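Quick one - first record:
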Amino acid sequence: MIAINIKSKTYPAKGRAGQHLAIADFKLAINANEFVCLVGPSGCGKTTLLNIVADLDRDYDGEIKVGQVQTQSKIGYVFQNPRLLPWRTVRENIELAIEDNPSAENMDTLLDVMQLSQFQHVYPERLSLGMSRRVAIIRAFAINPNVLLMDEPFVSLDAATARQIRTLTVKLWQQRPHTVLFVTHDLREAITLADRIVFLSSAPMQVVREIKVPIARHERDNEQVIEAFRQQLLHVQHSTT
């Protein structure tokens, strides 16, 4: 379980004196192996939250607990930018993230699930953006993290490519369950992926509401089912504003 309790996170205000309050009184609990999607307006602080959970940003008032202890824990992070080293092959980029001696069998399985086996010795410059994103996802799973953070990893991809990578990612996650905190601006994507969707306010960011997705996993590839639930959520949101 992850317990997030951020009393406040501030930045220096741009163009004026004082501080900008980015996150305030933010509390969220995530169960072990739960897939949680964060949905909120652009600039509300979603990436800031992930950086705090990843221990990349310590300048805040609050605490993050993974299990029964405060973080540090092993965190996998998939950024919007794949951040692959251009002088290393696909396989070498993945191996670089693994502290211990990487298991060849484990690497082969990951590459196979994400349909990259035939590209494992290719350098990043020869990869499409979608393929580079798949490499970044493998790299995050390869370290067997306690928590997997994903910051809009399918943004800027065409619809067909994004759908393919979402399907492969869910397949990999079902084979290797991890606690996932996934940021997206796309409600359809959140419904397709999440066990639970957390809706966030604009800054200072807070939890507005949480919705469990009742759609069975085997129905998530049915666009009509996804759209019907999306309309239901939009209707509820409209009726409460």
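second record:
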Amino acid sequence: MKLITLLALIIPSLSFAASLTIGTYNIRNFDYDDRYHIKTNKSELAKIIKETGVDLMAVQEINNTSEFGAFVDAQFDDFDSALSECGGAHGQRLGFMFNTKKLKLISFDEDLALSNPGQRGACNGGSRPAAIALFEKIDTKQKFYAVSVHLKSGGQNASIIKRNKQFNEIQKILQTLQSNSGVKDFVVAGDMNTTNYNVRGSDYKTLQSLTTAIGATDLSKSLPCTAYWWGGSDDGIETPSILDHVLVSSGLIKTALQPKVGGHCAAVSCQEMPEASLGMSYSNVSDHCPVSAQIQ
């Protein structure tokens, strides 16, 4: 009887220890947006991220990497960050912030293949390179790759064609990582700029094909939105869209809790809204919202 009671106490604790909350967040030109002369509201940003309960967050558009590192150190106990040196034509670097009590960073690198697929990659030209980290879960010693991406923006045909090529490069990157290291599990997360995803256009179809090909689950698939934009008309109403995705390999998911979206997306339930109604999350942090999900 004592043994049964002890096991009953241990098993739930092991299950809890194995859980991991992962996500992605495009933080608009952190920490100062030169286009609109807006400084990132770091108190609001910290609040939004903490509400996700995230253990691993892929981040994009980090223009000031030293300031982001200082922000993570000041606002998040037991967290660290790893960011790319290259940021494409606009200096928008990307990487991760992570819970050091749950994850050990083994290595960090970046891959220029996404900047100009099929051509020689550029650190400070074209689209943003991929940031690649190898993590080990401290409780189970399971290793996995995390890839933070920020694909070509825009709904024009040329942009869609480039994104298609970038999706192909992501598959090649994963295959190379898996072949060279033997580590099979992965997370691919970021702003994939799937501009016609919500109407089941070509971006949707291409991403679903990639997800199937790499044996992953898209945790963003059930979300109603992940970002807002002006909608293409000057009517003062901002329009929701689905741009950000978290792809997770089957070996990392035994069960996945319902993915969620934070910030202004959650506050207005992904409804069309006047800009003023979206609040500080939209005006002084990002047009995107954090996406997160707990996996076990």
